[in-house]
UniProtKB/TrEMBL annotation, chain A:
This is Mini-chromosome maintenance complex-binding. One of its GO terms (biological process) is DNA-templated DNA replication. Its main location: nucleus. It holds the Pfam family MCM_bind. Residues 180-218 are annotated as: Disordered. It is found in: Nucleus. The lineage of its organism: Eukaryota, Viridiplantae, Chlorophyta, core chlorophytes, Trebouxiophyceae. Keywords: Nucleus. One of its GO terms (cellular component) is nucleus. InterPro entries: MCM_complex-bd.
Automatic annotation (TrEMBL), chain B:
Residues 452-657 form the MCM C-terminal AAA(+) ATPase domain. Component of the MCM2-7 complex. SUPFAM superfamilies: Nucleic acid-binding proteins, P-loop containing nucleoside triphosphate hydrolases. PANTHER family: DNA REPLICATION LICENSING FACTOR MCM FAMILY MEMBER, DNA REPLICATION LICENSING FACTOR MCM4. GO terms for biological process: DNA strand elongation involved in DNA replication; double-strand break repair via break-induced replication; mitotic DNA replication initiation. It holds the Pfam family MCM_OB. Residues 1-112, 414-437 are annotated as: Disordered. The lineage of its organism: Eukaryota, Viridiplantae, Chlorophyta, core chlorophytes, Trebouxiophyceae. It comes from Chlorella sorokiniana. This is DNA replication licensing factor MCM4. Residues 39-71, 93-110, 418-431 have a biased composition (Polar residues). It is an enzyme of class 3 (hydrolase). It catalyses: ATP + H2O = ADP + phosphate + H(+).
Length: 623, 855
């Protein structure tokens, strides 16, 4: 079949396959095979926030995002029998071209709505090519399939629908009255209410346009980040929360959903309770377009292997870049580099192995501390969102190298302001995201230098506890009101602080900064990142992060001696030190592009740790 | 309304018959016609009342109307039958035939009794066959062969005697008696259940010699063979009877659900009734009075219409049923009549009901969207899985079990066992009765293991080797002794443990492990702890310029373990608060002019670093940690953890870590015996909630003997080796040891082990470094008996020396020290000297390092 025709009208292709299917009970009828055709993929336009308005309704699109919420499964008319006795499918669509015959036979099927959002905290360099590709893909779409034309066609259908028939059917309005114990008959002035209902439509659009930030707006999806998308899954594909996936599916816009939400706001408690889960997955499509997934791929791992020769060069450049940011502090740059290749590779019930939490300390009365001082003349209220110059610079550096980086100022105000952990709103039946809902491989930077004395409220305390769980166990507890569920995370945490961090109990590595040159500011870092070609560095980091790793038996023996011997020599060495050392040694080896641990790396790691300890000595003679 | 007053009122508490409930649609039509013709006969009781109790509301006298005595009322609003059973709607898509297993012979007279072969629409299932089989089930089912009377006949009489409507049928009973009947009930509940109701009424009527129409009974099937989780519901379950477990998250207010509407013509006053038919009430479009026939003149009279209670509930999956990486699913449910308000948000329930799906269009003007269904469960039966907390259940179990048995099973769904909430025990996930039974059995099996004590101590912080006795002490703390209330006094059951030792000896690790394990564990660092408060303060440490978090730990850990790291660095104010906590188990807070005494029944597990960070073997424990002796004496066990590197265990640990980082599989080596942390936590909580051991006479003797021995050890040398506080500690330790075995008596072995633990702890901490003897005085006053003698000697010597040697210009302190050391056998420190000089204030004064004599 002509790829362009499929892209323009995928439903026609699906229905043709359905009509031609071999067995009556075949639920799949070869759809995946058709759409998985590699020739098709380049033709499929990419759905993003920008391109959404240019894409016609019911065309085939690609969309990439993170699974932010998994809603209740939905039952729908999967198949219905036409008056002529043949079965028709209603898969991959919100609306049918033909009316389901009244009282006709239907088969109910199930589909799973997923809420996908653009990957949170994604760095600019990772987003840009995707956005460009999306714009380019739009150009490939022939002008004939423009949005206006498709929309007009649909409207004509609506108007053509016999009005009387529509009246009889159960609508949300009717369901509302059922739930509140009213019946159609008891409503003395039902005509008036009908008029109200009709009048509600423009008001809903207004409301949607202003999207006034209140609780009801949250129910209508105004709280979601721009570019979110409601994806329907039709098969049992394994998807987990916070997975990053690419979806190929049928775009669907239903302008009337905004009206439904408007009515819902007018209804009472019982009304919203009955339909809230349906409404949760039927958000106004102007905010959250709907996508009926035909294919679902996990995020492509970017890890093309980098040649060994290039590794050394890339590593040196990355170190140089980080060192420049940290005022020429090579040791700190080394640790920060290791942070960038960290990945959770094993979990035990109590801990996650593979990432460390790093605390970079700007010691009082040093240049670093001066850079970390909050900018003068800033109102405290503004400070909640504000980073110190040091924080901003490190954030800019991490963003330049890591694909995802979440920077959070750790101030009393910011901590108390709102929950950072995700929680389910039982009214809207949706998960309200928090800054700690992150995709795998996200760097977390906490800027504690902006902390001042003050009182932490309950929310603030729980935020702190959530951070500690993240650092210690790489898990985030999602709050479902009556219980919380721990979801795994993979997000190495770096803390910037003046003096040791508040979170020192969960910090693995504390390192005072000893800059030899003035620290860079955020603008300088951004400029440096823009001028240099960082692409090889990013490729190198991505490859190092995903590489396999093993310890040879003879090295194992050697390490045992080393560890036990170290403990004999220095009594302050304990299990936690062992953990840190093993982790650092592993990350060191990975950062050099090595797949196994050597004695040299181990020695280098010990030497690096020795230098770190030296820096800790004068400030903390014993701790 | 005037005619209403004269209408025949329902009589009798059970109410007169409900609707005649014809079997076929034709009959229904004829009945409603008759009803329409005799409007006066339909009666509202109290105008304005919306909710009725079930027996009242169903007695809405249609009695006079009934001309065909049919077996009973089949009105089941919970199944959508407001009027009476009518068969499924024509739009239903099911056309399958029933299960073929029709071979079970039926009692013939039942068959003949109703020759009317009415079939359930769309099936080959005849009403009379269902009736016959159900009849047989109720009349003959016995739970065990020895039962005298058929179980459900007995139950029926009880239900009738209590005047109740709900009649609970155990699905398992029905299945064992007649599989086909059970399958019918599960597959076609909307059709079969009303038939069951009719049969029940008929049987009751026969027993009581009454008109079946006067008897209202609703059969509620529960305990189905399969209980699903919400995740597993699928479209195939629609219109089936299902059983689902979950946790209630929200309930709506009570919604009046109209079952009968009374319309009155505004023109002539003619009245007409209209029943709610599958969720709809049809408004007559014109007046039924042949003389009037006015169009659109009928208006509903609200306070003469009938409303039933209805409630919308939301249920969410139980936490343990959610696969990792997914969010919980929810399901909506409608509860009606007596099921309203039975479950509250937070309850774990198992619901039996009919799974329904209704088409929804999200916009009234757009027909195509109707392709989506809203699903919900029409609830038939709610069973609370248990009280809100697992361990309150364990505790309350012994009481409620009797209550449970006293209650007939018929009441089980309403029986909301009195909730003796044992506050403070962990509110973890709660579970069903069966799961709890399994848990209980598991715990008993654990307790029966002869090596349970060793296994438990090995399971505490398995990654920390060595420290066996410390772990055992901590274990005792976790299990705790029994608090006793004596006339006029209370003794605490909580055991407090102090760990003193070098940095890097896993103290913090042990603490954080206990924190994770203990119910309501609180972990705090002594440096930043205030004793109370639910908020925390961030302050700047003036010395280090570090930010410090001050949190209120003690109140939060009521009935838990409060782990305080860096105990020695705790501020004096917070520490003084600990005095009260550790002995009285309360805490006094003065805030806004109110002094409140809060409970802080907490065990304290503290760790302290010695002064100067390393333990100085030359000094006593008290000198090493510099804690006030009054506080020290409140610890039952004080352990000294000195760092003795042990290469073998270090290697073991190293091997484990290397494998963890290499191929990702940890090798701890001793996993087989280790009890997983979750089990251990539950075991401890279970033991604390259910086991209250008492001292056996022999054990009491052993205890007093051991105590006397410990005291007499010191007697000969005039030092105290044991005090009454130690006796109390011994009792607590023995009780904790008995608890580990879930044993109700404290045995001599327990006492011996307690004494051993105490001695181990004392040996390490109360040894007077100068004499090598256990000396409780070291803990009690900070000064040992040897010290006391020496001090007296020193003062004497000093007095003589000062009077002889010090001239009018005085003498330098350092010179005095040298002089006294020259003649003393034991080295005298400057501190000792200053203390001695303080006692000699009458003759000498120290000023700026000079000792001068008082004139």
């Amino acid at each position: 079949m002509d790829p362009l025709a499929i892209v323009r009208d995928p439903l026609a292709a699906v229905r043709a396959l359905h009509a031609a299917r071999a067995a009556d009970d075949d639920q799949e009828f070869g759809v995946k095979a058709l759409f998985a055709d590699p020739a098709l993929r380049p033709q499929v336009p990419i759905l993003t926030e920008d391109t959404a308005e240019h894409l016609p309704n019911q065309c085939l699109v690609r969309y990439c995002g993170m699974v932010a919420d998994m809603l209740n499964p939905e039952y729908y008319v999967g198949e219905y029998r036409r008056p002529d006795g043949s079965w028709a499918t209603a898969k991959f669509a919100d609306q049918l071209d033909e009316a389901v015959p009244e009282g006709g036979e239907t088969r109910i099927a199930e589909r799973r709505p997923l809420l996908l959002v653009p990957v949170p905290a994604e760095s600019g360099w990772a987003v840009a090519p995707h956005a460009a590709a999306a714009r380019a893909s739009l150009a490939a779409l022939p002008a004939g399939g423009a949005a206006g034309a498709a929309g007009a066609g649909k409207r004509a259908r609506e108007d053509g629908a016999p009005a009387g028939q529509a009246e009889e059917e159960l609508s949300i309005g009717m369901m509302v009255s059922d739930a509140t114990g009213q019946t159609a008959a008891d409503d003395g002035d039902s005509a008036a209410s009908r008029a109200r209902r009709a009048g509600g439509a423009p008001a809903a659009q207004q409301q949607e346009a202003s999207s006034g930030g209140s609780g009801t707006a949250a129910a209508a999806g105004a709280d979601l980040p721009a570019g979110s998308c409601m994806v329907y899954l039709y098969d049992d594909a394994e998807v987990k929360l916070n997975d990053v996936v690419e979806v190929v599916g049928v775009l669907s816009r239903v302008p009337e959903l905004a009206v439904a939400h408007m009515q819902q706001e007018q209804g009472g408690q019982a009304a919203s309770m009955l339909l809230d889960d349906i409404l949760a997955s039927h958000l106004p499509t102007s905010l959250v377009p709907r996508l009926h997934a035909i294919l679902l791929h996990p995020e492509a791992s970017a890890a093309a292997t980098v040649p060994a020769a290039a590794v050394a060069d890339a590593r040196a450049r990355a170190l140089g870049f980080l060192s420049q940011v940290l005022g020429g502090d090579d040791l700190a740059a080394e640790y920060l580099l290791l942070q960038l290749v960290g990945r959770v590779h094993h979990r035990t019930p109590q801990s996650a192995v593979g990432v460390m939490s790093l605390n970079l300390v700007a010691e009082p009365n040093t240049a670093a501390a001066a850079a970390a001082a909050p900018p003068a003349g800033v109102q405290p209220a503004q400070q909640a969102q504000q980073l110190s110059p040091l924080g901003a610079a490190v954030a800019a550096a991490l963003e330049a190298l890591a694909p995802r980086c979440r920077t959070l100022p750790l101030s009393i105000d910011a901590l108390n302001r709102r929950p950072w952990w995700p929680r389910r709103d039982q009214n809207s039946q949706r998960l309200i995201s928090g800054p700690l809902q992150l995709a795998a491989n996200t760097q977390v930077l906490l800027d504690e230098t902006v902390m001042a004395a003050g009182t932490l409220q309950e929310v603030g305390l729980r935020n702190m506890a959530a951070l500690q769980t993240l650092m210690a166990r790489q898990r985030v507890a999602y709050d479902f009101e009556y219980f919380s569920l721990d979801q795994p995370a993979d997000a190495p945490v770096t803390v910037l602080s003046l003096g040791r961090s508040l979170l020192k109990e969960t910090v693995d590595v504390t390192l005072p900064l000893h800059p030899t040159a003035p620290l860079a500011d955020a603008a300088g870092v951004a400029a440096a990142a823009a001028s240099a070609d960082l692409a090889p560095l990013r490729a190198y980091l991505a490859a190092a992060r995903c590489a396999d790793f093993a310890i040879a038996p003879d090295v194992e023996e050697f390490l045992q001696q080393e560890l036990a011997g170290a403990r004999q020599k220095d009594r302050e060495v304990n299990e936690r030190t062992f953990h840190t050392w093993m982790n650092l040694a592993r990350l060191q080896a990975l950062s050099h592009g090595e797949a196994s641990l050597t004695r040299e790396r181990w020695a280098a790691m010990l030497e690096m740790e020795g230098r770190r300890r030296q820096r800790l000595q004068p400030a903390q003679p014993a701790a | 309304m005037a005619s209403d007053g004269n209408a025949p009122q329902p009589s009798g508490s059970a109410g007169p018959a409900a609707s005649p409930a014809p079997m076929s649609a034709a009959r229904t039509a004829s009945r409603s016609q008759q009803a329409a013709q005799t409007p006066g006969a339909s009666v509202m009781q109290t105008p304005g009342s919306l909710g009725f109790n079930p027996s009242q509301q169903l007695g809405t006298g249609l009695r006079g109307v009934s001309s065909q005595p049919t077996p009973a009322s089949m009105r089941r609003p919970d199944l959508g039958h407001y009027v009476g059973f009518r068969g499924p709607p024509a739009s239903a898509s099911r056309r399958t035939s029933l299960a073929p297993s029709e071979s079970v012979p039926l009692s013939s007279n039942d068959m003949d009794a109703d020759a009317d072969q009415t079939y359930i629409w769309g099936t080959n299932l005849s009403v009379s066959r269902v009736q016959a089989r159900f009849n047989a089930f109720v009349r003959t089912f016995k739970e065990s062969g020895t039962d005298e009377e058929p179980k459900y006949m007995q139950l029926l009489q009880e239900v009738r005697a209590r005047g109740e409507v709900s009649f609970n049928i155990d699905g398992h009973h029905m299945y064992t008696f007649d599989r086909t009947l059970y399958n019918w009930a599960v597959s076609y509940p909307i059709e079969t259940v009303p038939i069951f109701d009719g049969q029940l009424s008929a049987i009751a009527a026969e027993l009581e010699n009454k008109d079946p129409e006067e008897i209202m009974l609703q059969s509620r099937i529960y305990n189905l063979r399969e209980t699903k989780v919400i995740r597993d519901l699928n479209p195939g379950d629609i219109n089936k009877l299902i059983s689902v477990s979950g946790m209630v998250t929200r309930t709506s207010g009570v919604i009046p659900d109209q079952s009968l509407a009374l319309f009155q013509c505004t023109q002539c006053g003619h009245e007409e009734m209209s029943w709610n038919d599958r969720g709809k009430v049809n408004e007559p479009t014109k007046c039924g009075n042949p003389a009037c026939q006015a169009k659109f003149s009928m208006q509903m009279v609200y306070n003469r219409s009938l409303f039933l209670d209805k409630q919308l509930m939301k249920m969410q999956e139980n936490p343990n049923e959610i696969p990792e990486g997914e969010t919980p699913h929810t399901v909506s449910m409608f509860a009606r009549q007596d099921l309203v308000d039975l479950a509250k948000p937070g309850d774990r329930i198992t619901v039996t009901g009919v799974y329904k799906a209704t088409g929804v269009r999200t916009n009234p003007r757009l027909r195509e969207l109707k392709a989506v269904y809203k699903t919900y469960i029409d609830v038939v039966h709610i069973q609370k899985d248990e009280a809100s907390s697992l361990f309150s259940m364990f505790a309350a179990d012994s009481q409620s079990q009797e209550a449970e048995e006293a209650l007939s099973q018929g009441e089980r769904n309403i029986a909301d066992a009195p909730n003796t909430q044992e506050q403070g025990l962990q509110h973890t996930s709660n579970m069903t009765r069966e799961e709890m039974e399994a848990k209980r059995a598991e715990f008993r099996a654990l307790a029966a293991d002869p090596s349970i004590y060793e296994r438990l101590s090995a399971s505490i912080a398995p990654s920390i080797w060595q420290l066996e006795d410390v772990k055992k002490g901590v274990l005792c703390q976790l299990f705790g002794g029994v608090s006793k209330v004596l006339p006029g006094a209370k003794t605490r059951g909580e055991i407090n443990v102090l760990l003193v030792g070098d940095p890097g000896v896993s103290k913090s690790q042990l603490l954080s492990y206990v924190h994770k394990l203990a119910p309501r564990g609180i972990y705090t660092s002594g440096k930043g702890s205030s004793a109370v408060g639910l908020t925390a303060y961030v302050t700047k440490d003036p010395e280090t310029k570090e930010m410090v978090l001050e949190s209120g730990a003690l109140v939060l850990s009521d009935k838990g373990v409060c782990c305080i790291d860096e105990f020695d660095k705790m501020s004096d104010a917070a520490r003084s608060m600990l005095h009260e906590v550790m002995e009285q188990q309360t805490i006094s807070v003065a805030k806004a002019g109110i002094i409140a005494t809060l409970n802080a029944r907490t065990s304290v597990l503290a760790s302290a670093n010695p002064v100067g960070s390393r333990y100085n073997p030359q000094l006593s424990v008290v000198e090493n940690i510099q804690l006030p002796p009054s506080l020290m004496s409140r610890f039952d066990l004080i352990y000294l953890l000195l760092d003795k590197a042990n290469e073998a265990t270090d290697r073991k640990l190293a091997r484990h870590l290397i494998s963890l980082y290499g191929n990702g599989v940890g090798r701890l080596g001793n996993e087989a015996d280790i009890i997983p942390m979750d089990t251990l936590r539950d075991y401890i909580a279970f033991s604390r909630a259910t086991c209250f051991p008492q001292l056996q006479p022999e054990a009491a003797n052993a205890l007093s003997q051991a105590y006397v021995e410990m005291r007499s050890m010191g007697m000969s040398r005039k030092i105290v080796s044991a005090t009454p506080r130690q006796l109390e500690s011994l009792i607590r330790l023995s009780e904790a040891l008995a608890r580990m075995r879930l044993c109700d008596v404290v045995t001599v072995q327990d006492v011996n082990e307690a004494v051993r633990l105490m001695k181990v702890a004392m040996q390490q901490s109360s040894i007077d470094p100068r004499t090598g003897q256990i000396d409780m005085d070291v803990i009690q006053t900070g000064v040992s008996a040897a010290d006391r003698t020496m001090k007296a000697q020193l003062v004497g010597e000093l007095r003589t020396m000062l009077t002889h040697k010090v001239g009018p210009s005085g003498m330098r302190l350092a010179d005095v020290l040298d002089a006294i050391n020259a003649q003393a056998s034991v080295r005298v420190t400057e501190r000792d000297l200053r203390l001695a000089l303080n006692e000699l204030e009458d003759i000498a004064r120290v000023q700026q390092g000079m000792v001068t004599l008082v004139a």
